[in-house]
Amino acid sequence: xxxxxxxxxxxxxxxxxxxxxxxxxxxxxxxxxxxxxxxxxxxxxxxxxxxxxxxxxxxxxxxxxxxxxxxxxxxxxxxxxxxxxxxxxxxxxxxxxxxxxxxxxxxxxxxxxxxxxxxxxxxxxxxxxxxxxxxxxxxxxxxxxxxxxxxxxxxxxxxxxxxxxxxxxxxxxxxxxxxxxxxxxxxxxxxxxxxxxxxxxxxxxxxxxxxxxxxxxxxxxxxxxxxxxxxxxxxxxxxxxxxxxxxxxxxxxxxxxxxxxxxxxxxxxxxxxxxxxxxxxxxxxxxxxxxxxxxxxxxxxxxxxxxxxxxxxxxxxxxxxxxxxxxxxxxxxxxxxxxxxxxxxxxxxxxxxxxxxxxxxxxxxxxxxxxxxxxxxxxxxxxxxxxxxxxxxxxxxxxxxxxxxxxxx
Length: 409
Ligand code: AMP
Ligand code: MG
Description:
Layout: H1 9-19, E1 26-30, E2 43-44, E3 54-55, E4 59-62, E5 72-80, E6 93-97, E7 109-112, E8 116-119, E9 125-128, E10 138-139, E11 150-152, H2 160-168, E12 173-177, E13 181-187, E14 191-192, E15 207-208, H3 211-221, E16 225-232, H4 236-247, E17 252-256, H5 267-274, E18 275-281, E19 284-285, E20 289-295, E21 298-303, H6 307-325, E22 336-340, E23 351-358, E24 363-366, H7 376-380, E25 383-387, E26 398-403, H8 404-408
Parallel strand pairs: 5-6, 13-16, 13-17, 14-15, 17-21, 19-23, 22-24
Antiparallel strand pairs: 1-12, 2-11, 3-10, 4-6, 4-7, 5-9, 8-9, 18-20, 20-21, 22-26, 23-24, 23-25, 25-26
Helix pairs in contact: 1-6, 3-6, 4-5
Bound molecules: adenosine monophosphate and magnesium ion.
C-alpha cells in the first residue's frame, strides 16, 4: 500500500481558514453582554472623551499668571463639583474644584488641595503654597478619544477594557459576529460517560469519555453555543443518523475519534455519504489523523480520539478556524524563544508539540511521558514546545515556546 504524504500543518491551517471565510452573520448585543464576542464593524466616536478639559485632582483652579510665588492668598469665588460647570475665574480669584469637574474659563491650572491652606481670618480665602505650571492637573478634552476616531476595529475580540471603552463613547449595544453553533459528539464503543458507571464497576476495555469535557469547555471559551450529542456508537448507520441530525441548525459538527483508518472508524464513509470529506494526515505529533469536510452546508471537523492529540489539534486548528469564522483577522499562534532545560535526542520526522513547563530559572522542563494519551502532561504543563520535524534538542538550546493559557483564553 502506498502511503499518502503527510500534510504540513501550515497548509492544513490555510485550507481551514479559507473555509472559515464563509462567516456567520451579524447580530446586535447589549454592551454589557458582549464580553468575549467579536466586533463586526469598526466603532468610531461621536464625541471627545473626556468631553471637556477637567480637573484630575480635588483642589483649586487658578490663573497661573496670578501665582508667581508661593504663599499668595486668593479669594474662592465659586465651587465646581463633577457634573456641574463653572463661571469665568476673575484675576486674583480661584475656584474650589473637584476631580472630574470642568475647568472654568480663565483658569489654566489646578493646585491640589494638599498644596493649599484655608485662611480663616480672611472669609473664603485660600493660600496657595506651590507655584503651578500651566496645564497642571488638567485632563484635556479628547486626550483619551478624539471625535471621529476609530477606537475599536471589526474583527477585534471584546474583553472588559474594550467594553468600558465602548461605553465611554455612549454605546449600549454593539454589532458582533453571531456565536458559532457547534454540535459535539464523541465516537467509540469503549466510552462511558462519567457518572453512569462507577470506577470499580467499569467493564474490561471501557474508558471514560474525557474528550467531551475538554472540548465542550474549549468551545465555550471561544464563544460557541454547544449542543452535546453524546457518544455515538461505532456503527455506520448510527454515525450517519447522528451527523444528519447534527447538520441541521449548526455551523460546525465537531467529533473526536474514529478518523483513523481502522475498521471501526466510521466517520469517513458517513461524512462522504452525506457530503464531502477530506481526510488529512497532518505532519504533527501528537495529532496525525484529522478530517475536514461538509455535511450539507455545515462544516465538519473530525479530531483524533487520543485525548492529547484531540486537545492539541483543537488548539492548532479548530481554535483559529472558529475565530476566523467570527471574523478575527489575527488567528496566529504566537511563540517566544525559550531555553530547553531538557534533551530531546530522538526527534520525530513530524513537527512535534512537546508538553513543557517554565521553571524558576527561566528555562523549560519536559514532562517525562509525551504519549498522546497522557492528559496529565497537559495539566502539569503550561505550554508547548513547537519543534520542527527531525530536530533534536540538547539542554541549553533555544526552542519555540507557546503558552497554552494564551490559547485557552
Ligand atoms: P480512535 O481515534 O477512535 O481510534 O481512538 C484513539 C484512542 O483514543 C483510543 O485509545 C480511544 O479509546 C481513545 N479515545 C477516543 N475517544 C475518546 C474520548 N472521547 N475520551 C477518551 N479517550 C478517547
Ligand atoms: Mg474509536
